[in-house]
Amino acid sequence: MQFFKSRLAGKAVVGIELSRAGIAVVVLGREAGGKVIQASTLIAAQGQNSSIASFQSDLSELVEKHQLKAAKCNLVLAKEDYQLLLVEAPDVPDAEIKEAIRWRVKDLISTPVEQAALDVFLLPDDGARGGKKMVYVVVADKARIKEIVDFVAHSQLSLNSIDIVELAMRNITLALPDEAAQVRGIALVRIGEGVGSVSVYRQGNLYLSRQFQIQYSGGLLDDLPVDSLALEVQRSLDYYERQMGQAQPAALYVCGENISEDKVNEELKRALPLTVNWLDVSALVPSAEEEPDEGIAQLCVGALGACMREASA
User: Fold this and answer.
1) pLDDT, tens digit, 9 for 90 and up, residues 22-73
2) Radius of gyration of the chain (CA)
3) Residues 156-165, mean pLDDT to the nearest whole number
4) Contacts (Cβ under 8 Å, ≥6 apart) of 241
5) How far is residue 34's CA from residue 292's CA, in Å, rounded to a whole number?
6) The domain 176-283: what is its CATH number?
7) Residue 246 banded pLDDT, cuts 50, 70, 90
8) Which of 44, 103, 196, 312 has the most C-beta neighbours closer than 10 Å?
9) 277 and 47 Cβ atoms separated by less than 8 Å
10) Which Pfam families match (predicted)?
């Protein structure tokens, strides 16, 4: 997304994901052997309506501790900070879609169009039926974007980009070692307290993203509701295959709040028609920590995806 992007670069990259629970932060550095996670943490919210400014002191302390002043920062918006719409593209050159689409979606968005920051990215041609060109539209409030820009600046980080969850998680799928699955498609399920999402990617492109409610409390000892989760996933897969004309993805990965390997059990695997895997976040990138906390890694997966954003994206 191009709500904000600079060309500043440094040795370390800081990924930040905003959420209702707080802000997740990952510091990705480079050593002789390649990329390594230098730090990952969750700065918890102090209440349901915590402002972004309430995290300023803790983030500034982290920046100082790890000597990150002026480090490049990629930030991921909270789900509540934007709308993601899939609409038919206007019949204009690709370079003009962004401006032309603004007035097409004005009655579909919660933010007055004059106050909206807007960006677009195309759905691959083979994902649209009937020869129609379709486009994803991301809409956020300009005032909220400015608030975020100021927050990062006051933390003495260099803001490189502001992105959305769906594209940060795309970067996670690209880091998976299964090249055959990249070609056929990967479904990614992310689960939090009371909510879940299913996104389907193929060769780095987002085809489908869908949110749903789920009876999961997010605790260490809370089991996943297999039947309802499988139903929601199957609905998404059905739409992807029947309405978008795609073949079934090669694999599905499950991650999220206190999602441990044992929660992605045989019952869930039998309930779905494709290979189901637990997403081992700690295995994606080596960590400088002797014993990385898998619970924190799961909470920070979006921030890690932000770190993995390519400079040309």
Assistant:
1) 999 999 998 766 889 999 999 988 766 778 989 999 999 999 999 999 999 9
2) 19
3) 97
4) 247, 248
5) 18
6) 3.30.420.40
7) very high
8) 196
9) no
10) PilM_2 (PF11104)
